[in-house]
């Protein structure tokens, strides 16, 4: 039974090995992308099949199979599928390493799936490192100076963040004597007073997790890594790694540190301060950027700030109030579609221009109408303007924050959203009103156009009809209210 409930991860690992083996024998490397996509679909089928099994714990309670884990597993698999589709146009730059590339994407996805389902600190760390080490390698796949430098910076800073996180876990274990999240919660509630070492451990864990979600002041790796990495991996980092980080924060802090109320108020305030700083630093630093990948890197720091408004609300609200928690899940789903759509268009345009400079996108509406329309919609969504998904995502998170006396934080967030409109709309202005440097059309493959259309349709559907996904998010977070 344990293996059946673990089938999504096992099947994806099997297909990762199959991709590596096929790479040795097949000459037409396009088959590797197809096999990888089949692996994602098979894994998704297993995830849906076990979704109705209810809440269960497997492997001596170290992994949870519940609605929360299933939601994120499907989200990660969807992200992986879109990344694989968009990578087909990028393979000319990675011709020698396609098998390793697709296999590492699948392995990183397995790590993220483990992070979403973990119910124990050691397993959490294993899943996190499995995803992180795969991403360290993927960032350096171009093997040029920028890519190698980005990979090295990401590796070194990631190692420091992992050490800080592990030390925080060690302090929590030292105080409670437990590594399983529910047992940690019981030990904390049974203690007559909150141990200062426990507070220090939680602070260090916040620092370690903040690196994974690219929150200030643990954001220093983002611009260089986003610029130097292969563009599909930049997209994967910006949404997959961030979603995995928020998934594990939600599970750890609600399962282990939600009681007593004084403890949740403490970490809620920490996230509120980090949210205000992250969105402000991210948006202000994005304004002068001329490289579109660096600009979206700083944008992702600001988006982490908006998401942490939801985390701050979690700390200040009772567990039975799931609006703030489900709002985070809805935001992550809409942000994943939005950023993947944006990077899909950027891959096609930058491949043709051989440049990531914003000014080189001048007049792109005349050279690539579909790509320009898709990128424009995604940028509007990142601002938070209707009818795109970003508007509803911010509405859910901000309204929950206002209900729990975080009006000051929402005011800062709204001001930052207005600031962000400047640099997002600057890209739109260049594409729509600028003069093209050439009349030559920008080519793109069918797989890339399919990925762009799927992403943009998702952005529109979540913006106009958000109810279905929001209900799924509420079901996924209802476990925290029990």
Brief summary of the model shown:
The protein has 482 residues and is mainly α.
Textual characterization of the structure:
By secondary structure, this protein is mainly α. It has a domain at 266-482. It is built from 20 helices and two strands. Helix 3 (30-50) runs parallel beside helix 5, helix 10 crosses helix 13 (292-316) and helix 11 runs parallel beside helix 13 (292-316). It is globular and about 75 Å long. The two termini are 25 Å apart. The model has no long low-confidence stretch (mean pLDDT 89).
Tally of contiguous helical segments: 20
Strand order of the biggest β-sheet: 1-2
Strand content: under 5%
Report the major sheet. Answer: 2 strands, antiparallel
* Rounded average pLDDT: 89
The portion of residues assigned to helices is over 70%
Task: Using the alpha-carbon principal axes, give the shape.
Answer: globular
Q: How do the SSEs run, as a string of H and E?
A: HHHEEHHHHHHHHHHHHHHHHH
Quantity of strands, as a count = 2
Radius of gyration: 21 Å
What structural class do helix, strand and pairing data support?
mainly alpha
First-last Cα distance: 25 Å
Low-confidence stretches: none
Summary tags:
single chain; about 475 residues; mainly alpha
What's the helix and strand layout?
Blueprint: H1 2-5, H2 7-25, H3 30-50, E1 56-58, E2 63-65, H4 67-87, H5 98-117, H6 121-139, H7 145-176, H8 181-190, H9 196-212, H10 222-228, H11 231-255, H12 261-286, H13 292-316, H14 323-353, H15 364-367, H16 369-383, H17 389-403, H18 407-433, H19 446-464, H20 467-477
Antiparallel strand pairs: 1-2
Helix pairs in contact: 2-3, 2-5, 3-4, 3-5, 4-5, 4-11, 4-14, 4-19, 4-20, 5-6, 5-11, 6-7, 6-11, 7-9, 7-10, 9-11, 9-12, 10-11, 10-13, 11-13, 11-14, 12-13, 12-18, 13-14, 13-17, 13-18, 14-16, 14-17, 14-19, 14-20, 16-18, 16-19, 17-18, 17-19
């Amino acid at each position: 039974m344990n293996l059946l409930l673990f089938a999504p991860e096992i099947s994806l690992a099997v297909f990762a090995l199959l991709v590596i083996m096929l790479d040795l024998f097949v000459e037409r490397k396009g088959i590797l992308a197809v096999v990888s996509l089949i692996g994602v679909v098979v894994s998704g089928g297993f995830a849906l099949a076990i979704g109705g099994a209810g809440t269960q714990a497997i492997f001596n309670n170290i992994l949870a199979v519940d609605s929360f884990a299933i939601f994120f597993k499907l989200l990660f698999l969807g992200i992986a599928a879109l990344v694989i589709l968009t990578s087909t146009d990028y393979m000319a730059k990675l011709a020698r390493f396609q098998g390793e590339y697709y296999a590492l994407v699948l392995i990183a996805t397995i790590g993220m799936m483990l992070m979403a389902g973990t119910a124990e600190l050691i397993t959490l760390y294993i899943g996190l490192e499995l995803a992180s080490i795969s991403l360290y390698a993927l960032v350096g796949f171009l093997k040029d100076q920028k890519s190698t430098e980005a990979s090295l910076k990401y590796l070194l800073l990631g190692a420091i963040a992992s050490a800080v996180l592990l030390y925080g876990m060690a302090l929590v274990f030292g105080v409670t004597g437990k590594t399983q999240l529910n047992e940690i919660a019981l030990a904390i509630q049974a203690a007559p007073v909150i141990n200062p070492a426990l507070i220090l451990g939680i602070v260090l864990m916040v620092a370690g997790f903040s690196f994974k979600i690219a929150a200030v002041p643990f954001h220093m790796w983002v611009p260089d890594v986003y610029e130097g990495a292969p563009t599909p991996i930049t997209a994967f980092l910006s949404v997959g790694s961030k979603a995995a980080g928020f998934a594990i924060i939600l599970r750890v802090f609600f399962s282990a540190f939600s009681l007593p109320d004084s403890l949740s108020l403490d970490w809620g305030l920490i996230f509120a301060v980090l949210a205000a700083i992250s969105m402000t630093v991210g948006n202000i630093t994005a304004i002068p950027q001329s490289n579109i990948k660096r600009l979206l890197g700083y944008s992702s720091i600001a988006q982490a700030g908006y998401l942490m408004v939801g985390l701050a609300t979690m700390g200040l609200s009772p567990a039975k109030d799931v609006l703030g928690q489900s709002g985070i899940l809805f935001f992550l789903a809409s942000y994943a579609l939005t950023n993947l759509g944006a990077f899909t268009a950027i891959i096609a345009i930058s491949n043709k221009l051989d440049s990531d400079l914003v000014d080189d996108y001048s007049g792109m509406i005349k050279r690539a109408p579909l790509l320009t329309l898709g990128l424009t919609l995604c940028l509007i969504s990142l601002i938070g303007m209707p009818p795109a998904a970003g508007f509803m995502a911010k509405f859910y998170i901000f309204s929950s924050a206002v209900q729990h006396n975080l009006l000051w934080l929402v005011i800062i967030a709204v001001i930052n959203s207005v600031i962000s409109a400047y640099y997002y709309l600057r890209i739109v202005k260049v594409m729509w009103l600028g003069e093209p440097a050439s009349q030559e059309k920008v080519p793109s493959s069918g797989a890339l156009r399919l990925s762009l259309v799927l992403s943009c349709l998702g952005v529109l559907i979540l913006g106009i009809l958000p109810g279905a996904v929001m209900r799924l998010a509420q079901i996924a977070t209802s476990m925290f209210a029990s």
